[in-house]
Amino acid sequence: HLVHFVSKHDAPARPRGLALTALQVLNDPKLADAVRAASKDPDSSLRVSATAMLGAFDATQATEQLRTIFPTANLSDKKQIISALGDLNAPNSDQALSDLLEDARAGRLPAEVQLELIQAAEKHPSPLVKARLTAWQEGLNAADPLGRYAFALAGGDAVRGEKIFVEHAVAQCTRCHRVKGSGGEAGPELTGIAKRTDRRYILESIVNPNA
Questions:
Q1: CA-based R_g, the chain, Å
Q2: How confident is the model at residue 84, as a pLDDT?
Q3: Which residues contact 60 (CB under 8 A, 6 or more apart)?
């Protein structure tokens, strides 16, 4: 039974997480029980995923648990926690996001999770969250054209990046740029670009190509 399997702490966490997702897709009547059990699981990733699902049943409790987990979570789990907070609609989730935005403004939040925070704040309905987001972004170095995008200088996912480069319908990177012999010739050859330049140079080329 999927509900029983989710609670088997001696089983690998990934398949138990998939079982929990299956219960959610099936709208199983015991989903809430499985979610509450998994939200206390020893595995941090499964605990975060389950707590995010808990928001559908109790947004206030889910927010409190996510806030408790956040300080000691790894970067991957921090990203998931922030994204989950963006979907929760409760007074304490408003405050949680607002506090994270203040941490970002004060330089206390890792750059690797700031994109998720911006996305969560943009979709969150709270006026307080919107105001904190605006205050943070307006406080970034106005003299630096890259200031607003500084979070992009850290983190990254090569596999997702390649998929965007090759497949993104709007960006259409390969119309102008060639990589490993494939693509257009209007822009610079990008094979090995990361070995020839640094992240700031690449970011500036995207944000302000005329520079």
A1: 20
A2: 95
A3: 90, 91, 92, 93
Q: Which three-class secondary structure string do you get for 4-53?
A: HHHCCCCCCHHHHHHHHHHHHHHCCCCHHHHHHHHCCCCCHHHHHHHHHH
CB 50 within 8 A of CB 39: yes
pLDDT per residue as tens digits for the range 37-50: 999 999 999 999 99
The DSSP symbol for 103 reads: H
Q: How many CA atoms lie within 13 A of 12 on its CB side?
A: 3
The amino acid at 10: D
What pTM was estimated for this model as a whole?
A: 0.82
Q: Which whole-number Å values give the CA distances from 10 to 31, 41, 43, in the listed order?
A: 20, 11, 10
